[in-house]
């Protein structure tokens, strides 16, 4: 009997290990209806939303108006009502079941947000009901006019304490607990007139109107993306170093530390959305003048292991 129980225990252990291994893999989903980078990636009423964005065809950059919805249960894409104008490189403020979009660019001009002038390629998030937007520029091609400004957009536009690092754009940002966390991004080198990747990391408290310095990233990176797995852990992935990367880390809020995490299923500046126990990885810029339609998901629990 004891031998039989031992064999059953070993079989159960191996089975659980196999299931755990399978669950730890990215699951490939039906591709986006069209390649997309810089679009709004969010969720609404239990469905993944891809709104606006850009792609390339025949050497021409296209600015998109379309809105697509993905049903996680049916694993199908459906078209939603199209926007009246294109939008890309905006900030999305996700609340429970819905979202708000602020800033961005339509291919010709930036979207007005009150007195805010730098709502393109900015960082931001919803912190305890407050929409916080920081950094960015007024035109995606104007990297010489990056900003350090911090704004609260709830009930009008209100200037807050400036970001203490260098002016930046295309950083990763995520709201966790009572703070907005900002990692990496792109600075401008006035001498060389070239973009410079950043390792800087800071957290902003709307309640205290104060920034605090975090442990910097180990590798300078721009175009990376962040999503809060819970109030204490932030998944940070992808972006552009010396080339596009799929590498990822998890930032531990309490310990102010990073640990290596499951890489993305492909190297790109992706969109990340957390919904119903999964993190979804959507499209992105995977090469210069290129966008991908790839689409995957992975259980949050697998990333937190």
Q: Which strand order do you get reading across the main beta sheet?
A: 1-26-25-24
CATH topology: Neuraminidase
Main β-sheet, in a few words? 4 strands, antiparallel
> In sequence order, what are the helices and strands, one letter per element?
HEEEEEEEEEEEEEEEEEEEEEEEEEEH
CATH architecture classification name: 6 Propeller
Mean pLDDT: 93
Determine the number of helices (DSSP H or I, runs of at least 4 residues): 2
Give the % helix: under 10%
- How many domain regions? 1
Please, what is the oligomeric state? single chain
The CATH class is identified as Mainly Beta
Short recap of the structure:
This protein has 305 residues and is mainly beta. It is built from two helices and 26 strands.
What would you say this structure looks like, in words?
With 305 residues, the chain is mainly beta. The chain has a single domain, classed as Neuraminidase (6 Propeller), CATH 2.120.10. It is built from two helices and 26 strands. It has helices at residues 2-23, 300-304, and strands spanning 27-28, 40-44, 47-51, 54-57, 60-63, 67-71, 76-80, 91-95, 98-102, 123-127, 130-134, 150-152, 158-160, 172-176, 179-183, 186-189, 194-197, 201-205, 210-213, 225-230, 233-237, 248-252, 257-260, 269-275, 278-287, 290-299. It has a four-stranded antiparallel sheet with strand order 1-26-25-24. A four-stranded antiparallel sheet has the order 2-3-6-7, with no helix packed on it. The chain is globular. The relative contact order is 0.14. Residues 1-23 have low confidence and may be disordered.
